[in-house]
């Protein structure tokens, strides 16, 4: 019996990673774009704001000397996604990684959430992830190599976060299930799929940085004794995407400082 039943493609010297939602100034995506650039990855940034996406791409190229592309894309629009991913494929080195990081939150309790809000959260967080991953997988299959990382949330695992409620948690739980299914279905094409589930990270997603009182409150639940940073999450994503991450598939890395242990 062959020891390697599935094709073991060589990892290219300069792989490309496509990151959604990497344009916000203090977000997880931008930090990940820099981390990957520093490690020699070419980087594509797809975010709503074309100008900000181009700016991040320029910044990463300048600081790390890698090829980059920044595009304005609403990931909930299937056609925009297909066009953008085709450009990434044509203009950057071999696409190896996709990071489904773009996401919106919803602080509304289940009994109050309206249909419009519910649908928008799922359109971006779930359908957007589906569109981007589907387009990337078509490219991965050509060379039998691909890495998918979904950015879920501790909120999905514990039934609501410190901020996100039903629509957010439900959509982020869908990402955990999708990554596990992709892990099973796509392994034969040399593709791995995993998730990261961050706890409270100090970004702007909840409408501004965490206040000192908020941090104080969060610290009571944090065995590591500090609130998470975007670099904590970027490091985990880099590991799952990289050469050393090839034997992990279908896992969820809880980047939460121990706030939620299960
Ligand atoms: N900050 C936290 O505490 C935390 C915790 C767990 C999970 N997360 C997840 O991490 C990811 C990044 O969050 P962040 O905290 O850096 O927030 P952020 O708001 O800084 O970044 C989210 C990015 O997604 C982009 N985006 C939103 N809708 C989009 C769309 N339709 N198409 C393309 N781009 C779109 C935004 O423009 C923004 O740049 C999100 O998926 C979030 O749910 C964050």
UniProtKB/TrEMBL annotation:
EC supergroup of this enzyme: oxidoreductase
Gene Ontology MF term list: oxidoreductase activity
Source domain of life: Bacteria
Pfam families: adh_short_C2 (PF13561)
Record has Oxidoreductase as a keyword: yes
Domain Ketoreductase intervals: 15-199
UniProt keyword annotations, A-Z: Oxidoreductase
Family annotation (SMART domains): PKS_KR
Entry's EC annotation: 1.1.1.-
InterPro entries: KR_dom (IPR057326), NAD(P)-bd_dom_sf (IPR036291), Sc_DH/Rdtase_CS (IPR020904), SDR_fam (IPR002347)
Family: Belongs to the short-chain dehydrogenases/reductases (SDR) family.
Record protein name field: 2-hydroxycyclohexanecarboxyl-CoA dehydrogenase
Organism: Brachybacterium sacelli
